[in-house]
Automatic annotation (TrEMBL):
InterPro entries: Extradiol_RC_dioxygenase, Glyas_Bleomycin-R_OHBP_Dase, Glyas_Fos-R_dOase_dom, VOC_core. Residues 7-131, 152-269 form the VOC domain. Pfam families: Glyoxalase (PF00903). Transmembrane segments: none annotated. This is Ring-cleaving dioxygenase. Keywords: Dioxygenase, Oxidoreductase. It comes from Paenibacillus pinisoli. The keyword Coiled coil does not apply. GO terms for molecular function: dioxygenase activity.
Length: 315
């Protein structure tokens, strides 16, 4: 059985307000809210998932909106930039759209590719790159046509306090291939066609600290439960300390922290987000695991209401 991951399963971050976050990721970026649930470890906090139509692995960004959280600082030990991929030829569409919505952008080049770089309302760093690889999205929302819609993750830029150690993890444990160095970054590539490109800073970076506007962890893909069990043994055999496998309802998860300070998760592709909602109704109601269902009334009183809505462009 292989011990090579296909790439990123999901990325999870801290933000402040569910409406502000939904307006940005659904209203501007055109992603679908595929699941509205809670942080199973802190049920007074939402856990919101955005992705393609079905929330396919490699497309999912998740958020813990916590209105009273402290402001974080992006730095070593974190995902520094979350990379989205759009279809080839869609770069100018996204540049124009972001400007029309009043999003401040910068343009950068890395490994011969052009990137639109910007931040969400909490300061999370995002970039969009256009590539041929990967299936195109069939989800359209807010004026984003299917042939321009974000496909999912292009990958991520990891900010490591010990980049050589992080690179060894990616190559020797996760099974990515080193692809080159450019502009102060080392590139690693997984075999999948979404979420498959990981760039790591070449020089050590000072620690950041958690809070809203920072990424909590990055999750890599396991094909199924059987492979997931192998992954846990594989990670432990390389000297890391993985957690027990945890049931997250829509995938199973295990976690470990590597020497560069970054918290990694390995998550299973199944069962997916349609296990408790029909595909056409994903994200429409608050879904609770059965052990919290008896507390639904109390939990709903603690959560701020919000809605998925189309936005008017700034002029």
């Amino acid at each position: 059985m292989t011990t090579k991951t296909a790439g990123i399963h999901h990325i999870t971050a801290f933000v402040r307000h569910p409406q502000q976050t939904t307006d940005f990721y659904a209203g501007i970026l055109g992603l679908r809210l595929v699941k509205k649930t809670i942080n199973f470890d802190a049920p007074e906090v939402y856990h919101l998932y955005f992705g393609d139509r079905m929330g396919s692995p490699g497309t999912i960004i998740t958020f813990f909106p916590w209105p009273d959280s402290r402001k974080g600082s992006i730095g070593g030990g974190q995902v520094g930039i979350t990379t989205y991929v759009a279809p080839a030829g869609a770069y100018d569409f996204w540049k124009e759209r972001l400007i029309q919505f009043g999003v401040e952008i910068q343009e950068a080049e890395r490994f011969g590719e052009q990137y639109l770089q910007f931040a969400d309302p909490d300061g999370l760093r995002i970039e969009i790159v256009a590539r041929e690889a990967g299936p195109e999205s069939d989800w359209t929302f807010g004026g984003v046509p299917a042939d321009k819609a974000i496909k999912g993750f292009g990958g991520a830029v990891l900010f490591s306090t010990a980049p050589e150690s992080t690179g060894r993890l990616l190559e020797e444990v996760m099974g990515l291939a080193k692809a080159g160095e450019d502009a102060g970054f080392v590139r690693y590539r997984a075999f999948g066609d979404l979420g498959n490109v990981i760039d790591v800073n070449a020089a050590p970076m000072a620690h950041g600290h958690g809070g809203h506007g920072t990424v909590h962890h990055i999750a890599m893909r396991a094909a199924d439960d059987a492979e997931h069990a192998v992954w846990r043994q594989h990670v432990a055999s390389h000297g890391y300390q993985p957690t027990p496998i945890v049931d997250r309802q829509y995938f199973n998860a295990l976690y470990f922290r590597e020497e560069g300070g970054i918290l990694f998760e390995i998550a299973t592709d199944p069962p997916g987000f349609a296990r408790d909602e029909e595909p056409e109704h994903l994200g429409e109601k608050l879904m609770l695991p059965e052990w919290y269902e008896k507390h639904r009334g109390e939990i709903e009183k603690l959560l701020l209401p919000f809605e998925v809505r189309e936005l008017e462009e700034s002029k």
